[in-house]
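anyone seen this seq b4? input:
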Amino acid sequence: MIANKENIKTIPAQAEEKLPISMEGILMARKNLQGIIHTTVLQYNSNLSLEYGAKIYLKREDLQVVRSYKIRGAYNKMSSLGKAALRKGVVCASAGNHSQGFAFACRALETHGKIFMPKTTPNQKVQQARNIGGDFIEIILGGDTFDDAFCTASQYCRDFGMSFIHPFDDPRIIEGQGTVGLEIIEQTEAPIDFLFAPVGGGGLLSGVAHVFANLSPKTKIIGVEPAGAPSMKESLLQNKRVTLDEIERFVDGAAVKTVGEANFEIFSRYKIQVETVPEGRVCSLILKLYNEDAIVAEPAGVLSLAALEDFREEIKGKTVVCILSGGNNDIIRMDEIKERSMLYEGLKHYFLINFPQRAGALREFLEKVLGREDDIVHFAYSKKNSRERVSALVGLELKKKEDLDTLFQKLKDFKIPYEYLNHNSDMLQYLL
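predicted toks r here
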């Protein structure tokens, strides 16, 4: 049974023994954040509800101050520091959204901060942090990954005695993010059957899960990671925190090699189910939200929605909340997002076609193999006079994914040698 809105302040905490966070801390965080953040809307989405036969609501943290939930944790942590610590200055490491929440908090608290970011951080997020923090922040770009930035920032704190503001592995950060859960509880009348939330380092869902364990314990909670960076899922499977050797960095806001220690403890305590979704499906959801609902979301922001497909039968007829965690998406990434989406949907395919080197060979390929609605969107070929045959890199866009079987059959029927490249990850990385 979900808690009544009027009773939230007085409900006793449950199952908090030895946990690094508490309901009292989350309620205090909400008090600290008054006048600083927006109470973001819990918005019914008719398109998704119709598609899945459920009542689906989006918690629109993409409409938050700095367009993500990260401000909640950053400000709560920094406001808990003493005046002496704030005078010395603060430091953070971030691949994006945490830096913006940090920058906002620096300006609001009038303390100076240094932000260490990997060189691979999208420029839009770097510039936004500069715009938000103004003269109160300095950005240092270095290394290729969040882990590189984290190590440099940590060493800087040790060298200069400054306070480190962790993006996810800190009780005050987690309690700040947990205020998202309080708002969701207050904004719903009926019991929530399912809650889906993104998982990167685990700070957001750690706080939200603690709230739901106390106020809506029957809600089934699903954490969602990108398939290329399943650090929490793997840690839970091995019953210990693990560090992944390599990760796919496309979903930059949720791509971490190691989850937080406090976060792993909370996930383990509440036995939170964590699932992964392919990056291509994430891209399809970004386009879907933009085209159907005029919502601009970032890759990490739609992880929760991307998992709905895997729970289609379970959520039918249920009340579902998905946390749409951020909307900081650089417009220059849209070509790559469209490309990844089409590959995932089975509408774009790459081949090495071995053509005989003679006049008319390409025309025969077009007439005999391609369907009327098939479109060549990429073609790379260089004539070699010393060879009888030569390979061309060909990218094809199909109207329906089922047309691929017909294409394969025609290539076989007309004895055209080819290599299919969609399963060649190295080649696709080059093309993308």
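DSSP finds 18 helices and 14 strands in the chain. The chain has a mean pLDDT of 92. kinda curious what u guys think
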